[in-house]
Design a protein that fits this description.
The chain is α+β, with helices and mostly antiparallel strands. The protein has helices at 7-15, 38-48, 79-82, 96-106, and strands at residues 3-4, 30-31, 57-60, 70-73, 83-87, 118-122, 129-130. The chain has a three-stranded antiparallel β-sheet with strand order 1-4-3, with no helix packed on it.
Length: 131
């Protein structure tokens, strides 16, 4: 079932033109361990997706000018694309995490998919932490 975008969603979507990226991101750093692997985080997200249906919805844009975009269920939702793994160089180069976050945030989210991604970054803090 199609669901209209909120006024805030419509505003952000219309502001995202050319090089302007309206995505919001965050970084959490955890001590490394079995609970913060990509597999465990992916499983945790998968079992809770029903609590936030928007995470499984993508934009549907009717013919330009005829109607506003709406949220629709993504029948081809792929949790493996949304929860991805990244790694930092083994030598622990200073600024590597900042650079990785900058690169990921510079990318515009694929509007053909639900508008979110989660990266599990290995090698933070010389390998003692996960971001």
């Amino acid at each position: 079932m199609a669901e209209p975008l909120s006024a805030a969603d419509r505003s952000s979507l219309s502001a995202e033109q050319g090089a302007i990226n309206m995505a919001v991101g965050g970084l959490l750093v955890f001590d490394a361990g079995p609970g913060v692997t990509r597999a465990s985080i992916k499983a945790r997200v998968q079992e809770r997706l029903h609590l936030l249906p928007r995470l499984r919805q993508k934009l549907a844009e009717p013919a330009r000018g005829l109607a506003n975009p709406v949220w629709v269920d993504d029948r081809h939702f792929d949790i493996d694309w949304h929860v991805a793994a990244r790694g930092l160089p083994a030598h622990g180069e200073e600024g590597a995490l900042d650079a990785l976050v900058g690169e990921e945030m510079a990318d515009v989210l694929d509007r053909g998919r639900p508008l979110w991604r989660l990266f599990v970054v290995a090698g933070v803090g010389g390998g003692a932490q996960v971001g």
